[in-house]
Amino acid sequence: MFYCDIDRSGVDFCAETLGGHGIYSEPDLTAVDLPGDLDLIWVGSLFTHVDEARTKLWLEHLSSRLSPMGVLVATFHGLYSIIEHSLRPMINPTGWAEIMRQFEQGGYGYAAYTEHDMGDYGVSLVRPSKLIDIATSIPETRVLSFTERAWANNHDVLVVAKPGRASLIRI
């Protein structure tokens, strides 16, 4: 079992408490040399903080590390997050207005935090159909499921797997 995060103390805690190996992440996830042939990759609340280009790139990177029958599970801010933001704002009003403008225009909105020093991390919002479009463009994978509000009654959950949809392997 591997634990990977940019928060080194969190990685150390998981490895020591739960057993397994820690991998320290980098701001650019593609710079992290993850092991190959992973059966399961779980990504909670990472894609909720990055733009569309990184989402595509990082989903491809993670998918490339899956075993031939591996599964990638990741969470995203979806339609319910619009309601959630009205109850508990995730970003300043200017940032949210930019997210909503992009979201309405192309199905994916993003704005960097300005009130926190977190580099180019911020808040993203993705329409389910846009996320499925992104996921189906990942080579050698297929979408197993997409469920709104499946994690913590808030985040949408996407599940992609190998082998790809064109594979002759039967499950």
List keywords for this structure.
four-stranded mixed beta sheet; 171 residues; 32% helix; alpha/beta; 30% strand; two-stranded parallel ribbon
Shape descriptor reads: globular
The main β sheet shows up as: 4 strands, mixed
The radius of gyration computed from the alpha-carbon positions, rounded to a whole number of angstroms, is 16 Å
Strand content: 25-35%
User: Structural class, judged by helices and strands?
Assistant: alpha/beta
H and E string: EHEEHEHHEEHEE
Q: What share of the residues lie within helices?
A: 25-40%
- First-to-last CA distance: 24 Å
Strand element count: 8
Widest sheet: strand order? 3-4-8-7
Uncertain stretches of 5 or more adjacent residues: none
Mean pLDDT: 94
- Our count of helices gives 5
Give a verbal description of the structure:
- The chain has 171 residues and is α/β, with parallel strands linked by helices.
- The chain has helices at residues 8-18, 52-64, 80-87, 93-106, 128-136; strands spanning 2-5, 21-24, 38-43, 66-76, 108-112, 122-126, 142-151, 155-161.
- Helix 1 (8-18) links the parallel strand 1 (2-5) and strand 2.
- The protein is globular and about 40 Å long.
